[in-house]
Protein backbone atom coordinates (compact mmCIF):
# COMPACT_ATOMS: atom_id res chain seq x y z
CA UNK A 1 0.00 0.00 0.00
CA UNK A 2 2.87 2.37 0.77
CA UNK A 3 4.25 1.90 -2.72
CA UNK A 4 0.85 2.84 -4.13
CA UNK A 5 0.69 5.94 -1.93
CA UNK A 6 4.19 6.99 -2.93
CA UNK A 7 3.27 6.87 -6.61
CA UNK A 8 0.03 8.70 -5.91
CA UNK A 9 1.97 11.39 -4.05
CA UNK A 10 3.92 12.07 -7.24
CA UNK A 11 0.67 13.23 -8.88
CA UNK A 12 0.45 16.26 -6.59
CA UNK A 13 -0.12 18.53 -9.59
CA UNK A 14 -3.59 17.02 -9.99
CA UNK A 15 -5.91 19.26 -7.90
CA UNK A 16 -7.96 16.42 -6.40
CA UNK A 17 -4.77 14.59 -5.40
CA UNK A 18 -3.22 17.77 -4.02
CA UNK A 19 -6.25 18.23 -1.78
CA UNK A 20 -5.61 14.80 -0.25
CA UNK A 21 -1.82 15.20 0.13
CA UNK A 22 -1.88 15.66 3.93
CA UNK A 23 -3.77 12.39 4.26
CA UNK A 24 -1.57 10.58 1.70
CA UNK A 25 1.59 11.69 3.51
CA UNK A 26 0.23 10.86 6.96
CA UNK A 27 -0.74 7.31 6.00
CA UNK A 28 2.82 6.65 4.80
CA UNK A 29 4.27 7.24 8.27
CA UNK A 30 5.05 4.39 10.64
CA UNK A 31 3.22 6.23 13.43
CA UNK A 32 -0.10 6.01 11.61
CA UNK A 33 0.19 2.26 11.13
CA UNK A 34 1.08 1.65 14.77
CA UNK A 35 -2.50 2.26 15.91
CA UNK A 36 -4.31 1.61 12.63
CA UNK A 37 -7.57 -0.27 13.09
CA UNK A 38 -9.48 -2.06 10.29
CA UNK A 39 -12.11 0.67 10.10
CA UNK A 40 -9.36 3.30 9.67
CA UNK A 41 -7.84 1.40 6.76
CA UNK A 42 -11.28 1.03 5.19
CA UNK A 43 -11.84 4.76 5.57
CA UNK A 44 -8.56 5.45 3.77
CA UNK A 45 -9.55 3.09 0.99
CA UNK A 46 -12.85 4.91 0.51
CA UNK A 47 -11.23 8.34 0.49
CA UNK A 48 -8.49 7.47 -1.97
CA UNK A 49 -10.09 4.93 -4.29
CA UNK A 50 -11.17 7.59 -6.79
CA UNK A 51 -7.58 8.86 -7.04
CA UNK A 52 -5.99 5.59 -8.12
CA UNK A 53 -6.93 6.30 -11.72
CA UNK A 54 -4.36 9.11 -11.80
CA UNK A 55 -1.45 6.71 -11.30
CA UNK A 56 0.27 5.97 -14.60
CA UNK A 57 -1.36 2.93 -16.12
CA UNK A 58 1.91 1.14 -16.82
CA UNK A 59 2.75 1.33 -13.13
CA UNK A 60 -0.46 -0.28 -11.94
CA UNK A 61 -0.46 -3.91 -10.91
CA UNK A 62 -3.73 -5.69 -11.60
CA UNK A 63 -4.66 -8.21 -8.94
CA UNK A 64 -7.48 -10.68 -9.54
CA UNK A 65 -9.19 -12.37 -6.61
CA UNK A 66 -11.75 -15.11 -6.42
CA UNK A 67 -12.76 -15.60 -2.82
CA UNK A 68 -15.96 -16.90 -1.33
CA UNK A 69 -16.91 -15.10 1.86
CA UNK A 70 -17.79 -17.40 4.72
CA UNK A 71 -18.94 -15.70 7.90
CA UNK A 72 -18.19 -17.78 10.97
CA UNK A 73 -18.11 -17.07 14.69
CA UNK A 74 -16.12 -13.95 15.47
CA UNK A 75 -13.00 -14.45 17.51
CA UNK A 76 -10.72 -11.76 18.91
CA UNK A 77 -7.07 -12.30 18.04
CA UNK A 78 -3.87 -10.38 18.67
CA UNK A 79 -2.25 -9.20 15.46
CA UNK A 80 1.48 -8.54 15.82
CA UNK A 81 2.57 -5.13 14.57
CA UNK A 82 5.52 -5.00 12.19
CA UNK A 83 7.25 -1.79 11.29
CA UNK A 84 8.77 -2.11 7.84
CA UNK A 85 11.58 0.23 6.87
CA UNK A 86 10.63 2.71 4.16
CA UNK A 87 13.55 4.24 2.28
CA UNK A 88 11.12 6.78 0.80
CA UNK A 89 10.11 8.02 4.27
CA UNK A 90 13.73 7.94 5.42
CA UNK A 91 14.77 10.18 2.52
CA UNK A 92 11.96 12.63 3.21
CA UNK A 93 12.92 12.93 6.88
CA UNK A 94 16.65 13.27 6.24
CA UNK A 95 16.24 15.88 3.51
CA UNK A 96 13.74 17.87 5.58
CA UNK A 97 16.16 17.79 8.53
CA UNK A 98 19.00 19.20 6.43
CA UNK A 99 16.82 21.92 4.87
CA UNK A 100 15.62 22.91 8.35
CA UNK A 101 19.21 23.40 9.52
CA UNK A 102 20.50 25.80 6.88
CA UNK A 103 21.81 28.07 9.63
CA UNK A 104 24.40 25.42 10.58
CA UNK A 105 27.82 26.98 10.01
CA UNK A 106 28.95 24.42 7.41
CA UNK A 107 25.65 24.38 5.52
CA UNK A 108 25.51 28.19 5.53
CA UNK A 109 29.01 28.29 4.02
CA UNK A 110 28.06 25.79 1.32
CA UNK A 111 25.01 27.86 0.47
CA UNK A 112 27.15 31.01 0.20
CA UNK A 113 29.64 29.12 -2.00
CA UNK A 114 32.38 29.49 0.60
CA UNK A 115 35.07 26.81 1.05
CA UNK A 116 34.89 24.58 4.12
CA UNK A 117 37.88 24.23 6.39
CA UNK A 118 38.67 20.86 7.95
CA UNK A 119 36.73 21.68 11.10
CA UNK A 120 33.65 22.65 9.07
CA UNK A 121 33.69 19.33 7.22
CA UNK A 122 33.94 17.39 10.48
CA UNK A 123 31.11 19.44 12.00
CA UNK A 124 28.94 18.79 8.94
CA UNK A 125 29.48 15.03 9.14
CA UNK A 126 28.71 15.03 12.86
CA UNK A 127 25.58 17.12 12.36
CA UNK A 128 24.25 14.77 9.68
CA UNK A 129 25.37 11.30 10.73
CA UNK A 130 24.72 11.67 14.46
CA UNK A 131 21.16 12.97 14.06
CA UNK A 132 18.43 10.68 15.40
CA UNK A 133 16.60 10.91 12.08
CA UNK A 134 19.67 9.81 10.11
CA UNK A 135 20.56 7.08 12.66
CA UNK A 136 24.15 6.51 11.46
CA UNK A 137 26.61 6.94 8.61
CA UNK A 138 26.04 3.30 7.68
CA UNK A 139 22.27 3.73 7.43
CA UNK A 140 22.66 6.92 5.41
CA UNK A 141 25.01 5.24 2.94
CA UNK A 142 22.77 2.21 2.73
CA UNK A 143 19.98 4.43 1.40
CA UNK A 144 21.92 7.07 -0.56
CA UNK A 145 25.08 5.20 -1.46
CA UNK A 146 28.58 6.60 -1.01
CA UNK A 147 27.66 10.16 -2.00
CA UNK A 148 29.79 13.26 -1.53
CA UNK A 149 28.17 14.82 1.54
CA UNK A 150 29.03 18.43 0.65
CA UNK A 151 27.56 18.05 -2.85
CA UNK A 152 24.53 16.23 -1.46
CA UNK A 153 23.79 19.05 1.00
CA UNK A 154 24.35 21.78 -1.59
CA UNK A 155 21.96 20.09 -4.01
CA UNK A 156 19.32 20.12 -1.26
CA UNK A 157 19.68 23.70 -0.06
CA UNK A 158 20.77 25.33 -3.31
CA UNK A 159 23.06 28.35 -3.53
CA UNK A 160 22.53 31.91 -2.39
CA UNK A 161 21.58 33.93 -5.46
CA UNK A 162 23.90 36.82 -4.63
CA UNK A 163 26.81 34.41 -4.22
CA UNK A 164 26.12 32.90 -7.64
CA UNK A 165 25.79 36.31 -9.29
CA UNK A 166 29.10 37.32 -7.74
CA UNK A 167 30.77 34.25 -9.24
CA UNK A 168 29.37 35.08 -12.70
CA UNK A 169 29.57 38.87 -12.53
CA UNK A 170 32.20 39.13 -15.28
CA UNK A 171 29.74 37.48 -17.69
CA UNK A 172 26.98 40.00 -16.93
CA UNK A 173 28.82 43.01 -18.33
CA UNK A 174 27.56 45.14 -21.25
CA UNK A 175 30.04 43.69 -23.75
CA UNK A 176 27.94 40.53 -23.88
CA UNK A 177 24.76 40.53 -25.95
CA UNK A 178 21.30 39.93 -24.50
CA UNK A 179 21.23 36.25 -25.47
CA UNK A 180 24.55 35.57 -23.76
CA UNK A 181 23.47 37.42 -20.63
CA UNK A 182 20.16 35.57 -20.58
CA UNK A 183 22.04 32.29 -20.86
CA UNK A 184 24.18 33.21 -17.85
CA UNK A 185 21.04 34.21 -15.94
CA UNK A 186 19.56 30.78 -16.67
CA UNK A 187 22.66 29.18 -15.17
CA UNK A 188 22.35 31.44 -12.13
CA UNK A 189 18.70 30.42 -11.72
CA UNK A 190 19.61 26.75 -12.00
CA UNK A 191 22.44 26.94 -9.47
CA UNK A 192 20.33 28.94 -7.04
CA UNK A 193 17.72 26.21 -7.11
CA UNK A 194 19.88 23.08 -7.43
CA UNK A 195 23.25 24.01 -5.95
CA UNK A 196 25.36 22.23 -8.57
CA UNK A 197 25.50 21.85 -12.33
CA UNK A 198 27.35 19.22 -14.29
CA UNK A 199 29.80 20.61 -16.85
CA UNK A 200 28.13 18.45 -19.47
CA UNK A 201 24.81 20.20 -18.94
CA UNK A 202 26.46 23.58 -19.47
CA UNK A 203 28.22 22.35 -22.59
CA UNK A 204 25.02 20.99 -24.13
CA UNK A 205 23.18 24.27 -23.57
CA UNK A 206 25.93 26.27 -25.26
CA UNK A 207 25.98 24.15 -28.41
Automatic annotation (TrEMBL):
<dbReference type="InterPro" id="IPR013670">
    <property type="entry name" value="EcoEI_R_C_dom"/>
</dbReference>
<dbReference type="Pfam" id="PF08463">
    <property type="entry name" value="EcoEI_R_C"/>
</dbReference>
<dbReference type="GO" id="GO:0006304">
    <property type="term" value="P:DNA modification"/>
</dbReference>
<dbReference type="GO" id="GO:0003677">
    <property type="term" value="F:DNA binding"/>
</dbReference>
<dbReference type="GO" id="GO:0005829">
    <property type="term" value="C:cytosol"/>
</dbReference>
<dbReference type="GO" id="GO:0003824">
    <property type="term" value="F:catalytic activity"/>
</dbReference>
<feature type="domain" description="EcoEI R protein C-terminal">
    <location>
        <begin position="89"/>
        <end position="198"/>
    </location>
</feature>
<protein>
    <recommendedName>
        <fullName>EcoEI R protein C-terminal domain-containing protein</fullName>
    </recommendedName>
</protein>
<dbReference type="InterPro" id="IPR050742">
    <property type="entry name" value="Helicase_Restrict-Modif_Enz"/>
</dbReference>
Amino acid sequence: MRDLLQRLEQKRTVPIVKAKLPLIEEVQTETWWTDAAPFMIENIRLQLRDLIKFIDREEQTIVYTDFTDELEDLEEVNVPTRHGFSSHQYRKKVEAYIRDNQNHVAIAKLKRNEPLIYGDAIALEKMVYSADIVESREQFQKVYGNVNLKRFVRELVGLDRNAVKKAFKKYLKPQFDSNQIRFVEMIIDYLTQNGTMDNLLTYIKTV
